[in-house]
Design goal:
Number of domains: 2
Radius of gyration: 20 Å
Largest sheet: 10 strands, mixed
Bound molecules: iron/sulfur cluster
CATH class of the largest domain: Alpha Beta
Length: about 375
């Protein structure tokens, strides 16, 4: 059985939060069971972009600070690191409050710059991950619970994709192409290459709607902790009201028979799960809809059946961030206009995730609009 611990807490007030994290970790043996004296412990928050803590895009700095303090008190050497999806690491750390959290806890910030190729026995034979990530004795993963355009939800396993340095993320998206299953497999293989020692999910204020970069903060008042990120994600998904049929990562983990991929195999400490489940998170607008149509039909009806990104000309400032991030180079900016080549687009939604102006909208084909209405799915 896998162990996952839950705790309710209303906000990020530092003193109470620290006590709550201590309580949360008790079923796992406490921080002393995770960290040994003298170990270099890399704390990996979600540092997607330079956004303020209130926007709920990044892991809240109070959680990062408290965890860093607890690592130090357990005798470890805490470090805080990531490779943001967009923007320089220092700027993102500053704006998100993580730089202040590092200073307050006396912790060094580590930018993921160079990477090391790592042989994998999985489907992806060689995976390059940040040297700082691989060199750490222990990883403590601090994801934010958010909806995600491509994978429906981002939490503990997806947060480890930050160990892929900068632009190499786009190359991996390109390799996985349009397949959610393949991308899920990649994420799981990254997790298996170097397993985090501990995962603590920031779901005090989570994100719903057009996550992970442009959704709406949603107060949930929950912390989730566990050693196994697959199990942590399964519990987080149920708390967000999301079933496995919406979650390619969970389905792939179960196909791979990974421990923790089934709720029945998880022992939950803290309040009963069903007492914490609130309204289902509003889903992102670009999400694929699985209507059970055969693959050949989907191909023929691609334009009508799928959602594609489209720049909102009222908001778009033609900054080029999306063009530079687009894995298959499907975006061009010419003569003061942005265009997207649908034939090339793999619908990874990196453009939407990374647009600093929330200007990349979703355009649904006619048939998709009709089917979405008929299926009763809520719009974002
Ligand atoms: S859609 Fe966003 S990222 Fe792309 S050019 Fe416009 S403002 Fe920049
Ligand atoms: S246009 Fe956007 S969704 Fe399409 S491949 Fe490029 S980044 Fe991904």
């Amino acid at each position: 059985m896998q162990t996952v611990s839950l705790l309710q807490t209303p906000d990020y007030e530092l003193v109470a939060l620290k006590q709550n994290i201590i309580t949360l970790l008790k079923p796992l043996g406490g921080m002393a069971a995770i960290v040994s004296r003298g170990e270099r412990v890399l704390i990996k928050p979600n540092l997607l972009a330079a956004k303020s803590p209130e926007q709920a895009v990044t892991t809240h700095p109070a959680l990062v600070q408290v965890v860093a303090e607890l690592v130090t008190e357990a005798g470890g050497i805490a470090l805080i690191g990531d490779s943001p999806g967009i923007g320089g690491f220092r700027r993102v750390a500053q704006k998100s409050g993580i730089a202040a959290a590092a200073a307050a806890s006396g912790t060094a910030l580590v930018e993921f710059t160079d990477s090391v190729e790592f042989p994998s026995t999985g489907m992806f034979h060689r995976i390059q991950l940040a040297r700082a990530y691989l060199d750490a004795d222990k990883i403590i993963n601090l994801p934010k619970l958010k909806t995600h355009e491509m994978m429906t939800m981002t939490c503990a396993v997806k947060n480890l994709f930050g160990a892929v340095v900068g632009t190499q993320k786009a190359a991996w998206h390109l390799k996985a192409g349009t397949s959610q299953e393949l991308f899920a497999r990649l994420l799981l293989e990254i997790y298996l290459l170097k397993k985090p020692a501990l995962n603590i999910v920031d779901a005090i204020v989570a994100m719903e709607g057009n996550g992970p970069g442009s959704g709406d903060p949603v107060q949930r008042g929950i912390l989730i902790a566990g050693v196994n990120p697959v199990a942590v994600d399964v519990v987080a998904a149920r708390l967000a009201g999301l079933d496995a049929d919406l979650l390619p990562l969970e389905r792939e983990a179960e196909r791979m028979q990974l421990p923790g991929s089934r709720l029945e195999d998880i022992t939950i400490y803290g309040p009963a799960l069903d007492t914490l489940v609130g309204a289902r998170f509003r889903l992102p607008g670009g999400l694929d809809v699985q209507f059970g149509l055969p693959g050949f039909l989907k191909k023929v009806m691609k334009q009508n059946l799928l959602a594609f990104p489209a720049a909102d000309t009222k908001k778009c400032v033609l900054c080029g961030v999306c063009r530079n991030a687009c894995p298959p180079a499907a975006i061009t900016i010419q003569n003061n206009a942005l265009s997207i080549d649908k034939a090339r687009c793999i619908r990874c939604w990196c453009c939407r995730e990374l647009c600093p102006h929330d200007a990349m909208a979703v355009r649904r084909g006619l048939l998709l609009k009709i089917l979405t209405t008929l299926s009763g799915r809520k719009k974002p």
